[in-house]
C-alpha cells in the first residue's frame, strides 16, 4: 500500500502517517492530492488529506482536481486541537491579553503560517474574526521546523498550529501556550485552558486528517479495501 501525502516531511502531520508514503507538498498540497487522484483506483494507493484539500477549492483552485468527484472517503484517521503559541518570553500570559493588545495595536503583531490553506492560517483567520477582526501581519514559511525555531526565539509573535508536534516544547518551556480550541483541555496539556474559559473565542472543531481513495474504484476490489481500511 502507498500513501500519497500533501505535506513536507518536517510537518507535524507526518507523525500521523507511518506507512510508506510519497510526499508532494507543492501548490498548497494540490500536487499531492492530484497524484493520488490519478492513481489506479485499485485500493493500493490512498491519500492522507488534511482540511487543506477542502479549503483549496476556494483559496487555491486547480482545474484538474475536484476533491468531491476524485475521491471517496475511507475513514477519519485523527483529529487535533489548535493551540495558540507565543515565544517563551512573550508579554502575553493569556489569550485575552493578546486579543486586547492586538485590538489596540493593529498590525503590530506577526503570525507565522505554513501556507494560505494550512490549519494554522485558518485558525488565525477565525480567531481574528471572532475576536473583533484583529489585524496581524502574516509571515509565511515553507518549513515547520524553521517557523517553530523563530517562534521560540521571538522573531515571530504568534503561531497557531495543532497540538501534536508542540506538546514537548510547551512542557519544556521553549514555547508558551495560551489556549487550545475545543470544548475541553488537551489531555497532554491539562494546564492550558480552552479559549472559552479565557474570554476569547474560537470555534470548537478540530483539524482533521482523513484517509481517502481515488474514486471509480472497481467493485472487484471491495474486499481488499475492507481488509486495509481499518489500518489507514
What fraction of residues sit in β-strands?
15-25%
The chain-level mean pLDDT equals: 80
Dominant shape: elongated
Secondary-structure content class: alpha/beta
Order of adjacent strands in the largest pleated sheet: 2-1-3-10-4
Low-confidence stretches: 10-26, 221-232
Beginning-to-end CA distance, first to last residue: 10 Å
Largest sheet: 5 strands, mixed
Reading the helices and strands in chain order gives EEHEHHEEHEHEHEHEEH
How many strands appear in the DSSP assignment? 10
Please tally the helical runs, counting DSSP H or I stretches of 4 or more residues: 8
Please, could you describe this protein's structure?
- There is one protein chain.
- This protein is about 30% helix and about 20% strand.
- It has about 230 residues and is α/β, with parallel strands linked by helices.
- The longest helix has 12 residues, at about 120-130.
- It has helices at about 30-35, 50-60, 65-70, 95-105, 120-130, 145-155, 165-170, 220-230; strands at about 1-5, 20-25, 45-50, 70-80, 85, 110-115, 135-140, 160, 175-180, 205-215.
- It is built from eight helices and ten strands.
- Strands 2-1-3-10-4 form a five-stranded mixed beta sheet. The chain has a three-stranded parallel beta sheet with strand order 7-6-8, sandwiched between helices.
- It is elongated.
- The N and C termini lie close together (about 10 Å).
